[in-house]
Amino acid sequence: MGGVIGIEGRKDAAGLVHVGLLTLQHRGQESCGIAVKEKGKDVFNYFTVNGLVLGKFTGDVLEKLKGENAVGHVRYPTSGSKSGILDAQPFIFKSAHGNIAIALSGNIINTTEVRDKLAKEGAIFQHSSETELIVHLIAREKLPIENALKKALAKIEGGYAAVMLFKNKLIGFRDPRGLRPLVLGKLGKSFVLASESPAVEVLGGHYIRDVKPGELIVVENGKLKSTFYAKPAARQNCIFETVYISRPDTLIRGMSVAQARMAMGAKLALQMKGIKADIVMPVPDSGFFAALGFSKASGIPFEMGFVRNHYMGRSFLRTTQHMREIVAKLKLFPISDIIKGKDIILVDDSIVRGTQSKKIINTLREYGARKIHFAVTSPEIIAPCFYGVNTPSKKELIAATHTHDEIVKEIGVDSLTFITIDNAAEACGGNEGAKGFCSACFTGKYPTKISKSTLEAR
Ligand code: SF4
């Protein structure tokens, strides 16, 4: 995951990126940062910090982040160390081309091979994150920055989207399959690049379009240049962006994530036709719109049977089993008179290890649920993701190690229905139709080569 935003040609660039990062906070909570550049000066003003965006960029900090071009990042670690400040982005590098600030979301899958090769050639790495690879690869090319960047990107493989500052340019690029999202927007005369469209809209700007797979965008003095650095590959948008990761108000393929999730709920209602229940209720938050869609399509009343606490920090002490149970309840609290004595359709976005689902279902039983029919808006996850979504290894995935009946028994439901891959793709397709989605975590068929060392690491 992780989220990025960049803006060119605004006096208040750091403040705007700060607001954009607040909008992208759900994409990563480990660390955050902003790098800003003043026109005509080859130094960056920057600030990176561990933890959430809110409260970190005080007036004093923003005052020091002077400049017209800015990039920002929220980090969710998918490789490297867990929360070291050294891995907080944007990264700033000196290179023969000039100074570079870069922020990347996603994952480069041939990191080990490229890193080993560069290390043998004498490269010294400062960060455990793979973003640094791109800068090392750029540094080896004696070409103008855009051409050097294109050559560097041709050597890496993965699912990523990035924003970069170089001289007076804001640069953005997206992997050749479009696995990770990046949108282009406009705020007045300035262009904005961001992982999700609400980060543009919250600033008072508007979404123009998705950055195309393999596209390299360079913005300088309000002028935009678009070129491509990779031959067109079959498009493979990550369907989990719609199922789970993105905000409901984000536009993907011209449709809001909320609408797509409602459509997934309606598809599940059809798949589960014949199952009777008193209420449909979501596991908040990502099950909300799907449960609403299920309810509208089936006529079964929608109820909110859980209250979710959004203010739970990660640092809460969980030293004993009793403490862990209290924390779980603090996060998701059941409303007993909605649940008691009811036959329930429970809607959630996915089953990964199954442990979370089991806890939720146990809680519903404790609070008097009679029957629980579980509707899941992603197909069975049977393989890990290598493109920036932090799924565990295959042996930890319940759908990879258990039959359908075993999962039903293990998590304790009366019935279990996963949306089919075709139904998920149709619901999420927007104005581009059902084709062009990655489904590797449901099929184990990856859209790129995965090296033996990468596979073995999972
Ligand atoms: S493997 Fe799954 S989570 Fe990863 S990019 Fe593909 S669809 Fe998304």
How does this structure look, described?
The chain has 2 domains: 3-233, Aminohydrolase, N-terminal nucleophile (Ntn) domain (Glutamine Phosphoribosylpyrophosphate, subunit 1, domain 1), CATH 3.60.20.10; 251-457, Rossmann fold, CATH 3.40.50.2020. 30% of the residues lie in helices and 25% in strands. The protein has 17 helices and 23 strands. The protein is globular. 49% of the residues are buried. The model has no long low-confidence stretch (mean pLDDT 92). Bound molecules: iron/sulfur cluster (SF4). Iron/sulfur cluster binds next to helix 16.
Features:
458 residues; alpha+beta; Glutamine Phosphoribosylpyrophosphate, subunit 1, domain 1; Rossmann fold; 6-stranded antiparallel sheet; 17 helices; binds iron/sulfur cluster
The amount of beta strand, in percent, is: 15-25%
What CATH calls the topology of the largest domain is: Glutamine Phosphoribosylpyrophosphate, subunit 1, domain 1
The ligands found in this model are: iron/sulfur cluster
Radius of gyration of CA atoms, rounded to a whole number: 23 Å
Q: Could you tell me the mean pLDDT?
A: 92
Count of alpha and pi helical runs: 17
Helix content: 25-40%
Structural class: alpha+beta
How many E strands? 23
Q: What is the name of the CATH architecture of the largest domain? A: 4-Layer Sandwich
Query: Spans of 5+ residues with little confidence (pLDDT < 50)?
Result: none
Global morphology: globular
Main beta sheet strand tally, sense and closure: 7 strands, antiparallel
Please list the strands of the largest sheet in the order they lie side by side: 3-2-4-1-10-9-11
Distance between the termini: 17 Å
